[in-house]
Amino acid sequence: MTVEPLRREDLERCVELEKVLFPGEDPWPLHAFHDELDAGFPYFGAYADGNLVGYAGMALMGGGSWAEAEIHTIGVDPAWQGRGIGRDLLLGLLAIADEHHAPVFLEVRTDNVAAIALYERHGFVRTGVRKRYYQPSGADAYTMAREARP
């Protein structure tokens, strides 16, 4: 398994995984992934035998002492979960944030115990709750943050 920049030809696979990973929610459409890459945001793919099995991306805004990062998505094919792929994708994003000395923010479903534990292991703390953040299910989200690293 390798983690490398996400390839545009794999964006349709991202959309397929969104539908599997986030049932009952409003999964990202293809144009949303294109928009993220067009904006120059860092996105990674996890590849096994050349096939996309996970993806992750974030917005990186500002520069210098004003830099800030927000993780937009991390998803791993259910058949590949539990193998450290989500961790590897997260670490790739955090390395970029750290290069820019940027704090990192994210939202995560309050019932996603595995993801919350992953984020907490990597320095994130809960900073609040966004009621009915996910639509159309109305599920709540924790807001989490990780301080900038020198």
From TrEMBL:
GO cellular component: cytoplasm
Protein localization: Cytoplasm
Residue ranges annotated for the N-acetyltransferase domain, each copy included: 1-149
Catalysed conversion reaction: N-terminal L-alanyl-[ribosomal protein bS18] + acetyl-CoA = N-terminal N(alpha)-acetyl-L-alanyl-[ribosomal protein bS18] + CoA + H(+)
Chief subcellular location: cytoplasm
Keywords: Acyltransferase, Cytoplasm, Transferase
Physiological role: Acetylates the N-terminal alanine of ribosomal protein bS18.
CDD domains: NAT_SF
Keyword rRNA processing attributed: no
Gene Ontology MF terms in the entry: protein-N-terminal-alanine acetyltransferase activity
Its EC number(s): 2.3.1.266
Family: Belongs to the acetyltransferase family. RimI subfamily.
PANTHER family recorded: ACETYLTRANSFERASE (PTHR43420), ACETYLTRANSFERASE YPEA (PTHR43420:SF44)
UniProt-recorded name of the protein: [Ribosomal protein bS18]-alanine N-acetyltransferase
